[in-house]
């Protein structure tokens, strides 16, 4: 079977990718930051043999040469799924702490693959809607054609630095392929807010992805007095994002393409309403039923047709996703 290197194997999206790759028959090596995380992944998949699932440690993806050894394998890798992103608690210098690591983390693995893994046919990179969105002037329709127009100067503002880092890192990947002409092609997966069940063997209530934190906050009563502004109104289920990554290596014509993976719109009020309907035992933690809904009537349109037509993604509905996510949070004590 084809062999895959999955970076950032203990991440929220990556943990779901592991399940899909194994169920599709791939041999898999994951990179993790520590021995403990690697062992937890193996223990959660007791049916997978050493040939089917193993791990290597890459402590800091932004370090020069971080992936030089990880990309070497016998038998060699056929594909790489790059979901790892630099890990920082404290951003004081936008360039040193955020932009450089994001860009170097992406170009670093591409350089390592070109130098030491000539068998790799395709690299799929986890990008983001952050690399598509134009918060200052939304277009009529968002699709893969759009790029965040953020400048390096604007990225020095801490409120812009995350979106800028995703934009510059993805652009750097496309530039690398154009200039370096490696043996592989690339595809990028660009999701907005990602909801979905947390993976219990890796996550606690404190260590969950940013999107799911708002669901945790709702069911813990933190929105009871007032529902905060939604912010970004587009969402997707983590299981659909994970499948998109795998389909992007399985489908030949996915190479050289970006994929805007989104199921549609939501508001924080929608989340509260679904929880109220499906989990009535949480009523005492929820804000009043007549709270306003801030989803704009004239919101921009979204075009996710490429992900459906090329990758064959059939998006889960919001009710299913929120219900499954809430159940997974309640299981770990929310």
From TrEMBL:
Query: Which InterPro entries does the entry mention?
Result: Epimerase_deHydtase, NAD(P)-bd_dom_sf, NAD(P)_dehydrat-like
Coiled coil location: none
User: What parts of the sequence cross the membrane?
Assistant: none
Keyword Oxidoreductase tagged: yes
Q: According to the lineage, what is the superkingdom?
A: Eukaryota
The protein's GO terms of the molecular function aspect are:
oxidoreductase activity, acting on the CH-OH group of donors, NAD or NADP as acceptor
What keywords are annotated for this sequence in UniProt? Answer: Oxidoreductase
- Every copy of the NAD-dependent epimerase/dehydratase domain together lies at 4-255
Which PANTHER family would you find in this protein's record?
A: NAD DEPENDENT EPIMERASE/DEHYDRATASE, STEROL-4-ALPHA-CARBOXYLATE 3-DEHYDROGENASE, DECARBOXYLATING
Q: Which family does it belong to?
A: Belongs to the NAD(P)-dependent epimerase/dehydratase family. Dihydroflavonol-4-reductase subfamily.
The name on file for this protein is NAD-dependent epimerase/dehydratase domain-containing protein
Output the lineage of the source organism. Answer: Eukaryota, Fungi, Dikarya, Ascomycota, Pezizomycotina
């Amino acid at each position: 079977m084809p062999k895959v290197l999955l970076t950032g194997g203990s991440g929220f999206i990556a943990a779901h990718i592991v399940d899909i790759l194994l169920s599709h028959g791939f041999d898999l090596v994951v990179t993790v930051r520590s021995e403990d995380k690697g062992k937890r992944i193996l223990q959660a998949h007791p049916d997978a043999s050493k040939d089917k699932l193993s791990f290597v440690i890459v402590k800091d993806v932004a370090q020069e040469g971080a992936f030089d050894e990880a990309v070497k394998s016998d038998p060699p890798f056929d594909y790489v799924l790059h979901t790892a992103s630099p890990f920082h608690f404290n951003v004081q210098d936008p360039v040193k702490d955020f932009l450089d690591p994001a860009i170097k983390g992406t170009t670093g693995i591409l350089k390592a693959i070109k130098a030491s893994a000539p068998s790799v046919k395709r690299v799929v990179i986890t990008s983001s809607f952050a690399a598509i969105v134009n918060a200052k002037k939304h277009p009529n329709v968002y699709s893969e054609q759009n790029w965040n127009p953020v400048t390096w100067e604007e990225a020095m503002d801490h409120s812009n630095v995350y979106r800028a880092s995703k934009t510059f890192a993805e652009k750097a990947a496309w530039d690398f392929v154009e200039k370096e002409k490696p043996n592989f092609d690339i595809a990028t997966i660009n999701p907005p807010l990602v909801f979905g069940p947390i993976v219990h063997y890796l996550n606690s209530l404190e260590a969950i992805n940013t999107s799911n934190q708002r669901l945790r906050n709702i069911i813990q009563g933190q929105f009871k007095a007032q529902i905060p502004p939604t912010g970004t109104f587009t969402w997707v289920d983590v299981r659909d994002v994970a499948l998109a990554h795998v389909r992007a290596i399985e489908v030949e014509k996915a190479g050289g393409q970006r994929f805007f993976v989104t199921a549609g719109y939501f508001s924080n009020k929608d989340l509260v309403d679904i929880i109220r309907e499906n989990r009535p035992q949480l009523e005492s933690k929820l804000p009043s039923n007549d709270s306003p809904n801030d989803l704009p009537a004239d919101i921009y349109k979204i075009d996710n047709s490429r992900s459906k037509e090329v990758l064959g993604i059939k998006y889960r509905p919001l009710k299913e996703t929120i219900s499954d996510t809430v159940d997974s949070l309640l299981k770990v004590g929310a």
